[in-house]
Amino acid sequence: MPLQTRRMQNSLKLGAKVLGNPHHIGRAAYQPHWTNEFRTIANKNESIYTQTHSFFSSLNLTFLAPTFPATPSWLNNVIDIDISLHESMSKKDDNPESLRLISLDHINRYNTHTHIYTQMVLRLTI
After folding, report:
1. Residue 8: closest CA among 60, 54, 66
2. Which segments of the chain are extended strands (E)?
3. Is the pTM value of this prediction over 0.70?
4. Sign of the CA dihedral running 71, 64, 108, 48
5. DSSP helix, strand, coil percent of the chain (3-state; round to 5)
6. 105 SS3 class
7. Which positions of the chain have pLDDT values less than 70?
8. What angle do CA 22, 8, 17 make, to 5 degrees?
9. What is the pLDDT of residue 123?
């Protein structure tokens, strides 16, 4: 990915994080300021607000900060475990690249859930 595209992507990710939290210390950088309007020829650098304002203003969305449950996830007695990939794929027989793509797609289905990764080996008894 070109450097300018990576910089813009990182600026947008940071902007979403900052705008999602109303008490974020960097929030002022994403607000209009008089220095953004009155630029001189000597000062060609654009602020992060100027770079990302057109993108965020086109969304017309309010950003919500991440919320956490009242009780920690490790105290939750009912945890839904999805092992459907374990049943449908095999590391020995399937292509590693297709395994990776299928796994990422499957994980993306749960993007609003809390992810818990472990290194334990799951042994199923039939």
Report:
1. 54
2. none
3. no
4. negative
5. 45, 0, 55
6. helix
7. 39-44, 60-67, 117-126
8. 20
9. 56
Two structure tokens written together for 66: 């991440």
Contacts of 66 (CB under 8 A, 6+ apart): 20
Each domain of the chain, given as residue ranges in start order, spans 3-59
Q: What angle do CA 8, 12, 15 make, to 5 degrees?
A: 135
Q: What distances in angstroms separate CA 124 from CA 66, 80, 94, 117, 121, one per listed residue?
A: 35, 16, 20, 18, 10
From 10, 22, 21, select the one nearest 48 (Cα to Cα). Answer: 10
Amino acid making up residue 58: S
Q: What is the pLDDT of residue 13?
A: 86
Q: What is the pLDDT of residue 96?
A: 84
Q: Given CA atoms 60, 19, 6, 48 in this order, what sign does their dihedral have?
A: positive
> What's the DSSP call for residue 104?
H
Q: Decide: residue 80, CB within 10 A, 0-12 exposed, 13-18 middle, 19+ buried.
A: exposed
